[in-house]
Amino acid sequence: MHILVVEDEKKLGLALKDGLESECYEVTLAHTGEEGFFLLNSGSFDLVVLDLMLPGRDGLEILATIRKRGLRIPVLILTARDAIEDRVSGLDAGADDYLVKPFAFPELLARIRALLRRGGAGQPSRLKCSDLELDPVTRAVTRSGQSLDLTPREFELLEYLMRHQGRVVSREMLARDVWNEPSRHSPLDNVIDVHIARLRRKVDDQFDKKLVQTVRGVGFVLREEVP
Length: 227
Ligand code: CA
What we know:
12 strands
């Protein structure tokens, strides 16, 4: 998932970039409205985080222009102006959601996930974490372009981890959502661990960057290993 962040406050822009990258999103940062507009027209992004108050071409102007051109990409606007008129004009101009500054980063992540889940029309549905890609429609899984052969259960397990990437997934969640076994005392833990071990062998063994991480005593998380 490639996110364009258009934010003129350098510190905030960099913090957003770092935070989103650690959640396995690919991030391009633009510091001016002009730059953001240029990138939007030349690159392919899955979502835009757009500050409204920008020097030069401001966020609303950019938003109105890209919508006029038929670009359906999800847009989340950031605004320090919390006056109700500004929110309304942002939504009128074609924003999908907005956050008022200052905001909590987990809140931003939740909004981004919701927008990406909803998806824009014609957006690719492929899931990506680093060089690992999964297509829920064709059920193809590749790492560094190399096709991985997964069993149906391993596929479901990986799809679940990819949809929750960057977040810790407990064995309880996996039992409930992947094995459809809601009982808290189900003897599934060993089964889950065996499947995780097999998945890890296929996804990570031949590669330097490990993606399937164990969080001791809690569960698992899919993300690039923090050295
Ligand atoms: Ca600004």
